[in-house]
Amino acid sequence: MEWGHFMERFLEDYQKRRLTERFDILTAINILKSRGLEDDELIHEITRVFYVDLDTYNEVVKAAA
User: Which of 3, 11, 24, 45 would you call most buried, defined as having the most Cβ atoms within 10 angstroms of its Cβ?
Assistant: First the structure.
């Protein structure tokens, strides 16, 4: 990976919002689903955009099932 791409990716990751609250995680899931994402695509997309508490994410997904 070239240096410029590494720094760009680092800055993107640094600016990610943290999702740790159930309500925030559920809101993000609902938004992604409203945009047509399937259940199996959610974890990939949500972790691409946010730092997510995965234990809470799994609890929310399990409760919604």
Answer: 24
Q: Which domain holds residue 52?
A: 17-64
Q: Residues 52, 17: contact at Cβ < 8 Å?
A: no
Residue from 64, 63, 62, 44 nearest 52 by CA: 44
5 in a structural domain:
no
CA distances (Å), 22 to each of 7, 18, 27, 56, 64, in order?
A: 31, 12, 8, 6, 12
Residue 2 lies in a domain: no
Question: Rounded CA gap, 50 and 47, in Å?
Answer: 5
Question: What is the Cα gyration radius of the chain?
Answer: 13
Quick one: how far is CA 11 from the chain centroid? Answer: 17
The number of domains in the chain is 1
